[in-house]
Amino acid sequence: MLLAALLSAFAMTLIVGVRYLLTSGAFALATRVRHPRLYAGLEPQVRREIAWSLLSAAIYGVPAGIVAWGWQAHGWTRIYTPVDAWPLWYLPVSVLLYLVAHDTWFYWTHRWMHRPAPFRLAHAVHHASRPPTAWAAMAFHPIEALTGAVAIPLLVFVIPIHPAALGVVLAVMTVMGVTNHMGWEIFPRAMWAGRLGGWLITASHHQRHHERYGCNYGLYFRVWDRLCGTDGGVGDFARDHAQAARRAARPAAGAAADGRDAGRTS
User: Fold this and answer.
1) DSSP assignment of 116-137, as one string?
2) Is the peptide bond before 131 cis (omega within 30 degrees of 0)?
3) How many CB atoms are closer than 10 A to CB 209?
4) Are residues 160 and 179 in contact, defined by beta-carbon separation less than 8 angstroms?
């Protein structure tokens, strides 16, 4: 019994780690194609982001694996497999319920993480990414990773959900976590600057959080930020892109200077 639980935790850790590498890697590649110089000079930072994220993968994977084992072996959780166990209209409703509940948990734990003591102890690790990259989505101190890792495993004990709907929730969580940090806006303008953007969080909204720290704490929706007066609006990426251009120009300028020095001494 213990061995099966441990194997499940190990397998889920591998799944979370591989999912992170594939998703962040894909969006980092998209960034290189769309904005080739955006991550120039950030190689040491990216290595730190990957290291912290792989540690977080274990912290996310262990509780998820134990819950998955308990569901399969003992019927824990309210995950149901027959599609007709609940009305079909409940499938999208369950996805929305999970996203709203997860967003609520994230907002309040994230806002707590910005209090001075928790920030110095844990959350500063995430904000050390300046600017964040597509690899920063899970770059958390273990304490912060733990606060995020328990959210979905706890919800499956409370809110009924089909595995397919749970897969949609996890896909949305993964994609939004990565795209919110990658330094440019992948979604249509209407999704972040129009009426719909007044309620949804994309990279433009989260970029302002990494700029100012004291605002924009949500994950999917702007509801809690707007209700609590912490919505700082959307930012733009002009400053980050200008800084990236300057970083990219430094090695080129250094190489040109070396070439001139070599020419003078030859």
Assistant:
1) HHHIIIIIHHHHTSSS--GGGT
2) yes
3) 23
4) no
Burial 82-100 (b: 16+ CB within 10 A, else e): eeeebeeebeeebbebbbe
Element (H or E) spanning 25, and its range?
helix 2-34
Give the chain's end-to-end CA distance (angstroms, integer): 74
Structure tokens at 39: 């991550």
Q: Which two tokens stand for residue 168?
A: 């949609």
pLDDT of res. 254: 52
Reading the block at residue 216, the tokens are 């924009």
pLDDT given for residue 251 in this prediction: 65
Percent of the chain with pLDDT over 90: 81
Alpha-carbon distances, residue 256 vs 95, 243, 261, 265 (angstroms) = 55, 20, 9, 14
- Which of 165, 162, 167, 169 lies closest to 101 in space, CA to CA? 169
Q: What is the pLDDT of residues 143-167, one digit of tens each?
A: 999 999 999 999 999 999 999 999 9
Alpha carbon dihedral 237, 48, 111, 207, in 10-degree steps, equals 10
State the pLDDT at residue 255: 43
Q: For residue 41, name the pLDDT band (cuts at 50, 70, 90).
A: very high
The whole-number pLDDT of residue 111 equals 98
Distance CA(95)–CA(101), nearest Å, equals 10
Q: Which residues contact 83 (CB under 8 A, 6 or more apart)?
A: 91, 162
Tell me: pLDDT of 236 over 90: no
Alpha carbon of 73 to those of 17, 66, 77: distances in Å? 24, 10, 11
